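Notes on consecutive records. When two proteins share a document, each keeps its own sequence and its own token line. Never mix them. Below: protein one.
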Amino acid sequence: MKKKHRKLYPASPVLSLLMLVSSCTTPHFILDTESQVRQNEIRRNRSGNVVADIFLTLGTAVVGAFTGVYIGYVPSEQNLRKIALQNRGSDSLQVNLLTDRIWKDSVYCDFLDIRIPPGETCRLLVPVGSVYNLYFSNTPGNAEDDEFIRFETHSQRKVKLYPGLTLGSDTLFVSPEPVP
């Protein structure tokens, strides 16, 4: 009897790799050490929650299969969200994200001194339901020409930045596009 070989699809490893790369955060754009530490803490916290949810879900399934007693475990609700800050300009941008949301030990969940090169995207994990005040400029260290955007992490995942975005207004409130 002849063995049948399974046909491998060449796109599946590529798609898996793309999904893995796109799910990563990019804390290397953060130059402020406290903000880097905070982003790494948030990442570890999320990873720990995901791993714990996986093991608890599998554990309840195994216990239910062997004993016939099904425990109603529901994975915890996600309280963090990934946002993408895209630099659409031709110069590097300095970005500061400020919020009134407290992370741990009475420390605000702010991210300071993020430098995003032209055409790059900075991905960060932030608490869901926070309102962030985003200040950005293409002249680092000069607060006089900072532009200001306010956005909510509950509904906004991507913010496209470029110099002159808020030209004509002092503030821009970014809201998601309406869903048809």
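Protein two starts on the next line and is unrelated to protein one.
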Amino acid sequence: MENDPRKLEDVHEPFDRLYGDLAMAYVRTGDYENAMNALKTAIRWNPMNCGFRLDLADLFKIAGDIREHIALTFGVFERASEARHLTRAFLNFAAWFEAQGRLEQAAACLKAARRFEVKDSTLEAALDQAAGTPKDPDGLTDEEANDLLEAEGLPTGANAEIAVCLLMCAQDCAAMGDRATATEMTIRARDLVGEQAALTLLQLVRDAAISEGFTAGGNPVSADAPGNASGEKTDAAETSDGEGK
């Protein structure tokens, strides 16, 4: 080992991203087995990366392992911090239910996917194909869709705990003066649970921080709050500051 000419170099990239890039390189060459192994390693480095989890689920589907495809997809619901990943997860379940001839459940999944208002070509194609058929999400009310999803053990939307975590991180970033990241985190939380729910959660997070005098990361509470989608203070933030309402 003393005469080993090799050196370790810091590539300044997270290991999960490196293995994810390696997986995509393998996919382009048609080497799906090594692509799956690379994605498994990427997920071990970052279990919360739902993009890698969904990519691996797709490869399992190609390999014919539908059980693992669905299991990986299901794991996205509790971890997803981006609306686009939840959209993909609900689309996977919609296709799975359709393959079983359970068209009402497929419609409920399409309705759930559409709620996130993500621009996704696969979602648009699925909605176009479903229009006027038994799997048309417009044939169900929100309550009916939610009942069907809950009966299958599926969520009806995003994990609120993830939205809270995003807002807590936004609070810490704002306290450190990083308003760009604070705004990004706040918008991601809004995209997960909707604007009104995000404002309510943001108010709760700020109230808890003010009562303790510190943010979740141990920083003193700042008068500056995470921005909303337009980069301005939210109503909840203004209230906490003692301004506005």
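For the record: Residues 1 and 7 are 11 Å apart (CA to CA).
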